UniProtKB/TrEMBL annotation:
InterPro entries with a match to the protein in the record: AraC_XylS_family_regulators (IPR050204), Homeodomain-like_sf (IPR009057), HTH_AraC (IPR018060)
Sequence ranges assigned to domain HTH araC/xylS-type in this UniProt record: 180-265
Origin species: Vibrio gallaecicus
Alphabetically ordered keywords of this record: DNA-binding, Transcription, Transcription regulation
Protein name: AraC family transcriptional regulator
Range of residues in the leader sequence: none
Cross-referenced SMART domains: HTH_ARAC
Gene3D superfamilies hit by this protein: Homeodomain-like (1.10.10.60)
Length: 288
């Protein structure tokens, strides 16, 4: 398993892109064959070989296809089919970024959807094929990051901002630490105005986005601890639940598992692939 993550180097790109990431499952890997993705409010463009299949199993539908594709924000847990070797190079966009960018062939906002699109169709000025970009990512991660910055720059130069995107950008850093009911006052606008702008830009409510971010932080926290070291009462307190039963109900609703069952199975992507969000480019170099 090779995995790395790195932020954009260009400040212009960093306004819209959170990071670039790479995951590869090699033939001799014995990692979980069907890991799960927890709900997420960011969109990803995933660069893959043209003949490589992808599978996202939702409760009511199978979203599948071949090659590069968009994975738009999704509100329910998805199960992946990673039973065979694969490689994915991803561009993780900031929450609501696609509102300001002109995505060829994609209406906005998109939720709970996977949309097949080649790298050349998305960035028709990019001279590299999927295979060439992935080869660069596997062998020269830093150069790959620079190349992606360069490929996205013409796109970002055409970005269009308005009062809704500006208000959404201001509220996002506040979501983790302030009650949603106080956010309008903090930004000197009515709560109704804030909610409407946020939904217009992201397709999500403030509560939905906050719930996704809290779940991601909780799974990150649990990933760093062995089952024997997890105190569920402490976890409930740390993440703002009234008590342990409240935490149990929340996790059951969000990921379909009780805390204890989740901790035993450890079958989410953060567990299976070592928590790619916590890995740095330096770790990739240290394993060469």
């Amino acid at each position: 398993m090779i995995s790395w993550i790195q932020p954009p180097r260009s400040s212009q790109i960093a306004k819209y892109v959170e990071c670039y990431w790479l995951i590869e499952k090699q033939p001799d890997s014995d990692s979980h064959a069907f890991p799960k993705l927890n709900p997420e409010s960011n969109a990803h463009f995933i660069i893959s070989p043209s003949n490589q299949p992808y599978h996202y199993q939702a409760k009511s539908a199978l979203l599948d296809g071949l090659g590069s594709h968009w994975l738009f924000p999704y509100r329910e847990t998805l199960q992946l089919d990673h039973s065979k070797p694969f490689v994915h190079l991803g561009i993780k966009f900031k929450i609501g970024a696609l509102y300001s960018l002109e995505v060829p062939g994609c209406a906005h906002p998109q939720l709970d959807n996977v949309y097949a699109q080649s790298l050349q169709a998305l960035l028709n000025h990019c001279q590299m094929t999927e295979d060439a970009m992935i080869h660069l990512a596997l062998n020269h991660p830093e150069e790959c990051g620079k190349m992606l910055d360069q490929a996205l720059l013409p796109w970002v130069n055409k970005a269009s901002e308005d009062k809704h995107s500006e208000l959404t950008r201001k509220v996002l850093p506040l979501l983790a630490d302030r009650p949603i009911s106080e956010l309008g006052e903090a930004l000197f606008c009515s709560q109704r105005t804030l909610e409407r702008s946020f939904s217009r830009v992201t397709g999500l409510t403030l509560k939905q986005c906050h719930t996704m971010q809290k779940l991601e932080a909780m799974l990150e926290y649990l990933y760093q601890r062995d089952l024997k070291d997890i105190d569920w009462v402490e976890v409930a307190y740390l993440f703002g639940f009234s008590d342990q039963p409240h935490l149990i109900r929340h996790l059951k609703k969000q990921i379909g598992l009780t805390p204890q069952n989740y901790a035993k199975q450890r079958d989410f992507t953060i567990d299976v692939y070592g928590g790619v969000e916590t890995q740095s480019l330096a770790r990739h170099h240290s394993s060469d």
